[in-house]
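Is this the right way to post structure tokens for a design question? Let me know if I should format differently. Anyway, here goes:
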């Protein structure tokens, strides 16, 4: 057990895995604005130095390149830290179909390495980026955090397993745990997903847009600033040993509706749509995701941006920033 009289520094020290990634870099910005000293940790397989370049020279920020699969490195780096925000992951569901060990090694073994490094350094708080993918094809919508899912992807299974392991760790250590099951998070610095793909496809061929699936898949699109605010609200206000939250907006948009917004922002007309596949975009994709966010709202959080605003802002950033 940790020493309950452990002395904390006046300035909170935060360690952010995946800190150069899309959501991670926005979380780093928020933590620094809130007065934390932040270490961003990333292997740069998906993260970009461009996402954190504006923080160069900031005395409250440092970047360390590394990998959560390296336990020795984590043990050294977590010395003096107060909280770990764990956003590093292998998050490509389609890649998992070919690489059956990637999710296990990155998302579960790497997660266990963090837990062990936290115990060795008496770090008590773990805030985890989980996923709505772990709900599979949920039969209850809006889906509550208590829903018992049948897994449809190795990615979702690895995140559910990581949650379960951490819950078990809270039974024999002083670790407290916050997990956030995200819907689709979009916004500036988002370089993957349906909006990114649509824009790049239409740049290559402005007359035809290939849509994976039937266009009727229905998802929630939450703006990244709202996502980060939800993370910080739950972390600051929910004080249970285990805190599980859905994090989404309360409105869905179909893939066809996302395409409508992208086509409008690109000022294109008479774009033919080519649908490939059935109800799913790919194996492991869940056609309808609609989460119950009442638990997080009970702590005073609510999204400021609608799904349409989030999609539009993301499309505009992509069009303006990518050449």
């Amino acid at each position: 057990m940790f020493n309950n009289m452990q002395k904390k520094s006046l300035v909170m020290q935060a360690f952010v895995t995946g800190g150069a990634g899309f959501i991670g870099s926005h979380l780093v910005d928020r933590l620094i604005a809130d007065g934390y000293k932040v270490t961003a940790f990333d292997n740069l397989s998906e993260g970009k130095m461009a996402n954190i370049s504006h923080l160069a020279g900031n005395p409250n920020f440092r970047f360390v390149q590394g990998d959560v699969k390296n336990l020795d490195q984590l043990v050294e780096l977590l010395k003096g830290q107060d909280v770990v925000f764990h956003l590093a992951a292998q998050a490509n569901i389609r890649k998992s179909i070919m690489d059956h060990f990637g999710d296990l090694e990155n998302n579960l073994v790497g997660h266990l390495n963090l837990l062990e490094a936290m115990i060795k350094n008496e770090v008590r708080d773990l805030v985890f980026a989980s996923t709505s993918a772990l709900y599979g094809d949920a039969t209850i919508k809006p889906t509550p955090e208590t829903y018992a899912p049948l897994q449809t992807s190795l990615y979702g299974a690895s995140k559910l397993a990581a949650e379960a392991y951490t819950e078990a760790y809270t039974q024999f250590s002083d670790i407290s745990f916050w997990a956030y099951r995200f819907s689709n998070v979009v916004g500036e610095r988002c370089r993957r997903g349906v909006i990114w793909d649509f824009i790049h496809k239409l740049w290559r061929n402005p007359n035809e847009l290939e849509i994976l699936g039937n266009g009727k898949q229905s998802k929630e699109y939450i703006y990244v600033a709202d996502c980060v605010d939800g993370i910080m609200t739950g972390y600051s206000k929910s004080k249970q040993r285990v805190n599980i939250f859905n994090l989404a907006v309360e409105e869905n948009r179909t893939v066809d509706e996302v395409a409508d917004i992208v086509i409008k922002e690109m000022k294109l007309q008479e774009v033919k749509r080519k649908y490939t596949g059935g109800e799913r975009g790919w194996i492991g994709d869940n056609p309808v995701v609609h989460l119950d966010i009442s638990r997080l709202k009970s702590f005073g959080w609510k999204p400021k941006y609608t799904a349409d605003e989030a999609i539009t802002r993301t499309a505009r950033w992509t069009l303006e920033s990518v050449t």
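Format looks fine. Someone answered above. Worth noting: The first strand starts at residue 13 and ends at 17. The chain has two domains: 13-185+223-247, 186-220+251-289+306-321.
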